[in-house]
Amino acid sequence: MKFTGIIIYYLVVVGLLIPSPAQAVQPKDIDLMLEQMSPTTLQDWKTKAYSDDLLAPVILGRAFSEGKGTKKNQVEALKWYRKAASYGNPLAEYYLGGMYDLGMGVPKNATEAFKHYMRAAENGIPDAQDTLGVLYAGGRGVKRDLVQAAKWHRLAAEQGNASGQSNLGYLYETGMGGLQQSYGEAQKWYRHAAEQGYDYGQYNLGLLYLRGNGVKQNFLEAEKWVRKAAEQGLATAQNDLGAIYAIGGDGLEQNLVESYKWVIIALTNDVARAKTLQKILKSQMNQKQIAEGERLAKEWLSKH
Description:
By secondary structure, this protein is mostly helical. The protein contains 17 helices and no strands. It has a domain at 1-124: Tetratricopeptide repeat domain (Serine Threonine Protein Phosphatase 5, Tetratricopeptide repeat, Alpha Horseshoe). Helices cover 69% and strands 0% of the residues. Helix 15 (256-268) crosses helix 17. The two termini are 41 Å apart.
C-alpha cells in the first residue's frame, strides 16, 4: 500500500506506520511534519530516534537544520542524518548530499555530495534524481554528461517531480541530452510542472505560447503563465511579463503602466536586461504613467 502527504504524516505521528528505508516518504512529507514541530515534539522524536526508529533521525536532522522546535545547528543536523543513513534511509542520503553541496556543517565537497545524492536517487527519491540530473548537466562533482542528466530528470519527472518535469521539458525544447528536439514534448512536460505550481514550468510554458513553439501563439496564455511565475518571485518572468505588456497583441491589450510596474520589480531582483526595457518604456510614457507604474510596483513589493 502506498501513502502520501498528510496520510503519511498522520500514520507516522500516531505510530501506525514505521517506514522502511524504501517507504515512500518524500522531502515534502518531512516538511509537513516540521510544521508541527515544537520543543516537546522534538523531544518525542529524539525518544523515537534512540529506539532505532528509521524515520525519526531524518526528521530531527531537518528540525536542527531548519531551526524548527529548536535553534539551528547544522553540526547536530549532520549527526542525525548520518545516523539515519547508517540505517539505510535514502532520504538521509539526500539530505547529506545537500549538506556537502552547500557546505552546511561540513566543508563544501561536490564529489561527496554527488555520492550521497546518487545513493538516494538509486533508491527512488525523486528530488535526488532531479538534483543528480542538475549535477550531470553542470558537471558538478561528476563529469558533465547530458545523456545521464536526461535519464535522471526523466526518472524524477515520471514520479511527478515538478522540477524534474521542467528540466526534462527544457532538454526536449533544446534537443539536448540525446533527446530528439520536440516542442510538443517540451510543452507536455512544462505543463505538468506548471499545473503543479512550479515557477520555471509556468514561465517556460508561457514562453512557448509567446513564441508559438509547439502550440498556437497566444498572448493571453503567455501572459497567464508568465504572470503566475512572476507572482511567485521569478525575476526573469517578472521582466518578460513587463515585455509582454509592453508589446500586447492577440487579444492582450498593451499596458505600459503594468509593463513599467513589472520592470521596476525585476530591477529590484537585479535583472540586468530590465534596464534596457525601462529606458524604452520611459521614452514612450508620460510622467503620470511612470509615477503610477512606480506606485504599483511599490505596492506589490510591500506585499511580497
